[in-house]
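Look at one such:
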Amino acid sequence: MAAKELDVKGLHCPLPILRTRALLDKMATGEELIVYATDPASIIDFKHFCNTTDNALLAHETRGEVFVYHIRRGVSQA
């Protein structure tokens, strides 16, 4: 199954997390989401978000000025 992608470049806290959460809520458990962000604070935000939800931060990297996050959808939060 191919990962979904979300581009939140140019947005600042809290919008990248809010948009990520909204999309993850529509995804099935185990699906992967790749998020592209430019907000330097997103590094802390995404780590905290994944540590406080059932979603897993699989990896993150920096490509120039873009931060790339690989997140796996956790168990349903219904």
Notes: The mean pLDDT is 94.
